[in-house]
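Chapter summary example.
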Amino acid sequence: MKRLWVSSLTEEAIREGFAALKDQSEYQHLYEAGMMRAIGDWLLGMNATRAYTIRYARGTGKDRQVLSVGRVQTPTLALVVKRQAEIENFVPKTYWELKTNYRDTLFSAQIPVEEGEYAITTEEQGRALVDSIKDEPFTITSVEKKKGLEYAPKLYDLTSLQVDCNKKHSFSAEKTLQLIQSLYEKRVTTYPRVDTTYLSEDIYPKVPATLAGLKDYFPQVTPLLGLKADGKKGAGSLPKSKKIFDNKKVTDHHAIIPTGQRPEALTADEKKVFDLVALHFIAAFYPECEVSNTTVLAKAGEMDFKVTGREVLKPGWRAVFGKEEPDTQDNQESSDSQDSNKSLPAFTKGESGPHEPVLKEKTTTPPKYYTEATLLRAMETAGKTVEDEELRDVMKENGIGRPSTRAAIIEKLYQRKYIQKQGKSLRATETGVNLIHTIISPLLKSAELTGLWEKKLREIERGEYKASDFLTELKEMTSGVVRDVKTNKAGMLCPVCRQGLIIRGNTRYGCSRWREGCTYAEPF
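The structure predicted for these 524 residues follows.
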């Protein structure tokens, strides 16, 4: 048996696919991984859902509540519940920052502190520091400039496209998937359900033709027209970088890119998605953005101060996006980091003059509620906050779910009323919170543990792990989950006072009426 394997539905791609049909045996490991994923989701989900529903669900008969538990669904819900608890239990702290204004530039005091601590914890302490330096001259001790390069944002995989569409257009993950699927079926973008941001090297010779197909819609293509895909460096040649073309980092399909076909008859929302994909593709072949990073150190009395700035020397790929620059990280930048991107006046080492110290009162803020964009990133990196693109690529190996299924998982959480949306924020409902608190198995709630399981499935894809071993491990895991539910005494009537309910502590069971004097205690 032969397989047709294509990444786009253009006539050229389909002809090439039929001319190079693949033998079925080449995809045996991929088949086994898909089969184990389906069996795993069914076996664990069915048994865990039944066990928890029978043991803990309220109601009887048709009115009995179903406690739906799933391999990916439950740790995703646990992420939302955990973040919500962190926000609700957050206790704000007040601290002060010492800055000083010199030549219309705010310098920050450099006071050594332990990690997680704040240098100025009382207003009196801050005022004393202000008094100690306000009459002292402000002297520039160092001016250091370093030129650097900023690389264009990576091409899109499905998750990063869903993240950007949620941020820029408030599209849900499911809606973005529907739109990019429609663009694929209209033959204007390549296969969308991908988890790589790289292209295979055989795409490189086709890039000039793809760019030419975009020239009537994006004037930014003009400087790239006529460049040859000859792999050489310098004028007249199309760049070929390992940041774009890397066969080792391409999985079943390559990154989402335009096909070069005319994007006709697109809806308004489809055009928004297509524009993102096309502009990222165009920007990938522009020169790097050249910047100058400046660090200025100064002193007032015994206090050290510092300010940083950044100046764009040559916009390079940033010219493709104009004023609407792409996000370079998932979290919103703080005002301090935004200030560091501003250009600075020309300071000279040794210059000195008067300054105006400023004491700013600050309050710590809780973490932000998840949005669909940040929840998708958390699923991709097994619950870890990762802003660096390179590190995020490494973490994908341990992510929970697949790019093609994450949107559906979030939709299930909505449908089952485990989470709800308030503005862009995702909030766990009382039902969702209670479910997570009821589940005792760490495997079912841990994004990291579930991510490690997903890693084994990917090892099966590569032939590095046996499907039979995974199935054995899966059966043992499922048996353990059910056994834990059956032996867990939480929720049962207290055998001592016969009034309270058994509750589960960290090391032992106790009674909910322990404050009233019930002495029941039993180790696990």
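To summarize the output: The CA atoms of residues 489 and 502 lie 7 Å apart.
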